[in-house]
Amino acid sequence: MSKRGRLIAGLAALAVASTAGVVAATRGDHGSPGAGAAVAVEATPKGASDADKAARKREVDVLLAQRATAVLKGDLKGFLAIVDPKQPALVSEQRTLFTNLREFPFTKLNYFVDAEREAPAVVAKYGAGTFSVRVMMRYQLTGLDNAPVQTDLGYSLTRRDNRWVLVSDTALDEYLSRDGHRQPWDYGEISVTRRDNVVVVVEKAEATLGAQIARSSQGAVDAVLRHWSRPWNGAVMVVAMREPQVMSLLWTAGRGDGWTIAAKAVSLYDGEPLGLKTTAPVGARIVVNPAYRKRTDEDLLVHEMTHVATASMNHRTPIWLVEGLAEYVRCRSIEDDPHWTVDPYRKRVRSKYLPSLKALPTTADFDANSDRAYGLSWWTTEYLAATKGTKALTALYADLSAHNTTPVAYETIIKRHTGKTPTALAAAVKNWRG
Ligand SMILES: [Zn+2]
């Protein structure tokens, strides 16, 4: 069991969204008027009028629409038309971006200007007429996304030969959402492997790894389909790149030295990418910790695949059930193979964690002792599946995801499906030997 039995951790969708909100707020603070803004005022003594800004927004939107069309049609020349020809490095980066984007079939792709943002450094470098805009990329990947999702990027443009040219795409990075301009296609050249509905993205030099992960991913999808009764098309993107900046994820959690996260399911939304999300996500991607990418096996992926399969249902579902179900499916899939068992995990939960169980694990419990919290969440889910059946487990999950809006609603739903209060449920789980 030591080979496959290590604890695989990923954060619930809600926790990821909250983290993104916190980071976004910090980044926003960097944008407050200060020394940098003062420089911008000096560099553009008159500043652009609102009418000027509206006019150039319209003009840039036209250029962005041409860019999107160029991606969809495979028109490299059209894609690069906006790029400053005097910057070979930028042209080369943009060519790589085009090559990478062409690896994905898009059902939809639009770029449009959100709003202008101050970026004094590019004004100082490229002249007073330079301005920067936060740009939305709204897209839907064919076979992966059921609906469009959004991410953001930042473009700086200047006037040259009576037209706007793109001089930088990094000046606004600090204003963007956590994974804005940090998508898998935003770095070096990638390799994309498809296997049924699974899409695996790795760096081009690691294409062999991509093929291996695609096989493990397919096995993981099959495992989820065996143990989770809700319909799911098994469409998922797994990103396993060496580049640590992709999706800007932190790989440690908890207090003190914390614990290392092997992979995460990252939620995707259609709408403003910045700030705390209040709506259900549209979908999810699995991102593997770069340090673990060469050990991305089926065991690691099953847990995260479960989060993807339930992505649109995790918004209001308590963390003990979101993580408990992922562990439940993982453990069940391990024991589908008669040569493997999770008995050591069972024993650990029974002897080490159950005696101290007083309430179902909360986010604070996961931070304080993740092994214990994952173990108890798993045990609770096993209890529900064993005593109520998997259909009832699914019904409970669906009810919580839709209606768990207040503590009173939570208690009502738990009672409706288990016949017990949350406290009584915890007591029953504590006494259950499996
Ligand atoms: Zn998880």
Describe this protein's structure.
The structure is a single chain. The chain is α+β, with helices and mostly antiparallel strands. The protein has 3 domains: 1-28 and 185-315, Zincin-like (2-Layer Sandwich), CATH 3.30.2010; 33-176, Roll (Nuclear Transport Factor 2, Chain: A), CATH 3.10.450.50; 317-434, no CATH class. The protein is 46% helix and 17% strand. It has helices at 13-30, 35-43, 50-73, 76-80, 88-101, 120-126, 207-227, 298-309, 319-335, 343-353, 363-368, 370-388, 390-403, 407-418, 422-431, and strands at residues 106-117, 131-141, 149-160, 163-168, 190-195, 198-203, 236-239, 252-253, 259-260, 263-268, 283-288. The strands form 3 sheets. A 5-stranded mixed beta sheet has the order 5-6-7-11-10. The chain has a 4-stranded antiparallel beta sheet with strand order 1-2-3-4. Helix 7 links the parallel strand 6 and strand 7. Helix 8 crosses helix 9 (319-335). Residues 1-45 have low confidence and may be disordered. The structure holds zinc ion (ZN). Zinc ion is lined by residues 10, 303, 307, 323, 326.
